[in-house]
Each structure stands twice: as structure tokens, then as C-alpha cells.
Amino acid sequence: MATGKINVSVDNIFPLIKKFLYSDHEIFLRELISNATDATLKLKHLTAIGEAKVEYGNPIIDIKIDKEGKKIHLIDQGIGMTEDEVKKYINEVAFSGAEEFLNKYEDGAKDAGIIGHFGLGFYSSFMVAHTVEIITKSFKDEPAVHWSCDGSPEFTIKKGKKEDRGTEIILHIAEDSIEFLEDSRITELLTKYNKFMPIPIRFGTKTETLPKPEDAKEEDPAPTKEVDNIINNPNPAWTKQPADLEDADYSGFYRELYPMQFEEPLFHIHLNVDYPFNLTGILYFPKLTNDLNVQKDKIQLYQNQVFVTDNVEGIVPEFLTMLRGVIDSPDIPLNVSRSYLQADGAVKKISSYITRKVADKLNSLFKNSREDFEQKWNDIKIVIEYGMLSEDKFFEKADKFALYPTVDGNYFTFEELQEKLKDTQTDKDDKLVILYASDKDAQHSYIEAAKTKGYEVLLMDSPIISHLMQKLETSKEKISFARVDADHLDNLIKKEDTQISKLSDEEKEKLKTNLEEVISGKSFTVQLEAMDSSASPFIITEPEFMRRMKDMQRSGGGGGMFGMGGMPEMYNLIVNTNHELVGEILNTKTAKKRERLINQSIDLARLSKGLLKGEELTNFIKRSYEMVK
Question: 403 and 409 in contact (C-beta within 8 Å)?
């Protein structure tokens, strides 16, 4: 039996490990299983190249809990260690055995899936254990080794009694970590971190129901048997080639990732690249609403099939964090700050690759099955619009497949829209004016008025559409957007058959004075326009610029833009000088009746615009009943 000191730079390394090295103690299990996986994959590689003259077999990793003894056992059937290797890899804390192995066998070992990226690995045991034992036997013909340490720099090492190849780690759980002696807690951790590890992980047994014998009666219970409880799927879909998978495989893997998610994803994107970085994965487009606060953190980041995090900001472009799925890359650094990730060259390349891959997939879906793409548009548009707004490269690609639906359910690309509207919806400066509605029901009367004039009206109702329109107007030539209830259509679009007013200039001045006397103090600018006599007598619109600024402020893009808490209320009161009611107001003899007609007419316009509320709405209803009487 020998004794010695672990070669560390300070005597209090263990308290540092326990308190500061990892922010979350639960990852000790991830670290130990990663080491066990490495040990097994190393053996697989050495047997494959003929350097290990042993039978690889079908190794598994065993997790066992001894509640009474307050111990956790973790057993692998991997490469094992000799006494010299224990001294080298365990006692010299900073030495990475996996890194050395990868360097030695660099021609083929990297393809073996060896992890080798998890820092101090084994020493995370001391976050939850007061004493740790290692009992190990190398695949080489050398005696087993038994190493023990009580959480101080002191250790003991002696010959072990283990006869079969591999390593057993025994954790004597500390009083402040007894939660890890619960089966449910260990199952939770195994499912979270090790669900797709490449070596089968066994944790106890489970009961499996067998088919009933042919001569069994209906009331007879089905026979059962105890079978190994294998926690993980060692060959998840993302590790396979797309050519080897069918749609059913992708759907099954989605349910494996999200067992509580009952809706099928709309489509998937299989990522598979090995140069200039390594990355595999599968991303799914779920059905999305217009809610920008939709739950994110649904993409899981793995490193060689070991779960790392579900916070992938910095690695996946922000607009794609609303997707779901898996990304696996050995080239992403672990346990580092987000600012480091954003500056890391490999991470930037990965983010650009994912953006391009998603854009190419969307373009392919659009070209190959446009009808299906149109049907899915409302479920995916929030991601695409957000991407167009936040990523210039995605904006360029999305220009080919981004759709602009009309209120009648027709879909156009921007190029198609320009071609359709170039002869009918241009202003006096030959700028294309694109009319849109953000709420079909609330803006119904305005939509109908525009359609009566032969104008096409788009339905653009996502919460970020104001920002996107701003970008489109600056990136495209000679176009502008106007909501149907914003600045009046006849001011925006040139008309060859301009209506002639029935009122003289003197009558117009008198009418404007009458109106301004009644609406004094309200935020209305009176505009007299000659329109068709069948059009509404009074229409309230809002300046497009002002309305859009308010929309952007509400969606988080304009708060503080003008150094004020809110944008002022400003509206246009468009008065149709050719309407019969307007003529009656002008010709009314008594001021009281004229004031009542004006108030009632304006309130009807305000009601149509959704501006009549509270006491004013109550007074309007009361006044309406009196007029009916």
C-alpha cells in the first residue's frame, strides 16, 4: 500500500471545486458519465485498430444507488487504468487524459466520438461526495488499482480486487447532497444530460408487459418481466445521415425530444457539416403565434451527444431561438461567458451556417410546394419577419420566398406585388404605395372603401411589421407603405378621374369654420375632400408616420426615440364635401342643430375608428336614443 499527495498548486483545491468551479453541482453525474463514455470509446478505437487484444463486446455504463450506505456507484466496461495511469490522470489534477489520447491517435480518434472537453471531470465528484473511491482494472494485463481520497489533498492507493476490465467510481455522498440518493433525482439528471449518450446507460430495472398467451382468458392479467432500464438512446436521429431517415423518423425523434408536445412540427431541417467546423443537428419549425414572447430555449445544445445547455443565444441567431431541436458540435467552447461566445470565430461561423441552411430550406419548400408553403405561412411568418429584420444576409435570401398576403387570402412575393401594383397604386411621384390592414375586423370599413376603388390591400398583422416596413422602404426603391386607415387614399394615390366638389370655395370656408368651432380642443386636423357621394361623409385617419412610430414604440423599437414616454394623439378628419349629410350641416339654420349633427357624425367616425370610449361613448349612445325618438 502506498500513500502520497495529489499534485495540485494549492492545498484547498477541493473547497474551490465544491464552491466555485461549477455553478451547478448536479453536473457531477454528467462529468463522470462523460469520462466513462470516453473510457469505453477509447477501448472501441483501440480494438478496431488492433492495439487492444481484447473483446469489445456490448459494454454499458451502470449507475447504482446504495441508499443505506449513502453511496452512488458508477461502473463502466471501458479501457480501465493501470496504477501509473491513476497516478498520472487522477493525482495530477490539471492533466486531461482524453486530450492526450486524441493527440496520440489524431488520425482516427476524433471520429470515435471521444468527448474530452469537460474540464476537471472526475474532480466534480467532490461537489457532492465527502469521499471518493476508484476501483479500476486496465485492459492491459496488469493488476487492479484501488484509489481513495477523503476530499483533502491526501489519497491512498493500493492493489484492487476487481477482476473484470473497466472502472468503478464510488461516491460517498455528503450530508448536504443526499438528494442525489433519490432514484427520481438521478433519473431526472440522466434524462437531462445523458439522454443521447453514445454508450447505453443502465439504471436499475423496469417492468415490461408481455403478450398474453393464446389460451389466456380475457380477465387474466398480462404477464410481465423485469428488464434492464436503459435510460438513453445511443443512436439519436441527428447522428445518422439524412438519406437513412424518413419523415416518420424525424417525427418520432421530435416526440422523443418533447414528449409533452402534442402538435406535430411543420417541417424539419437536418444540419450536417464537417468543414470548416463540425456540426450536426436537426431543427424543427413548430407552429408559432404572433406572440414575440413565445417560449424560447427549446433548442438543446450537445457536445458529442452530451447535453450542455438549452440557452443557445450567441450560437444560434436570435430569430431562430424560437425553433426547436438539437445542435451537436465539438467546436463550441463550454462554460464560458456569452460575450466570449459572440466573439468566438468558430461560433460566428456556426451561426452563419445555420442561418444559411434555414434560408435554403425555406426557399426549397417555397419553390417545390408553394401551395403548402402558403398554408403554413401564418405559422412561420413571425420567425421569417424577425430574421429579415435582424439579419441582413437572411433578408437578402428571404426576399425570394417571404410572402405578403392580401385580405382576400392571396399571396405574393415582393417582386410579384410590385409587378401587380405598378400601374394602379402609384402616387404623383411614381412611388409604389402599398396599402395594408393590421386588423381585418377593426379596419373593415376602410378595407372595403379601398377595394371599392380597385386597390389591393395586404394583411400585415404581426407585432414587428412596422419595423420591417421601415427596413423594406429603405432597402427598396420608390415604395411606401400606408395602412388603410392612415392618411387618406386619395392623397396617396394619383387618380385620373378626380372628383369635383359640389361646394364653392366660400361654402368650404364656412363649413370648415363650423366644424372647427365644434371640435375645438380635440386633436383633429380638418381636411375637406371631394369624393364620391356614396363614400362616408366623415372619415378619421391618422398620419402614417405618427401611427407607425406609435406601433414601433409599443413593440419595443421606439421607446425613448424622441425623449418622451408616449407619442401625441394626432388625427385627420376627412370630410366628404359631396355627401348629402355634409350639405345638410352646411345649410342648417340653427347653431344647436348644426352642433348636434356635427357631434353625432364625428362620433360615428370615431366609433368606426375605435376611438370612442368611456364617458364619450355613454353620451353618444344617450344622444343616439334621443335622436331616434
Answer: no
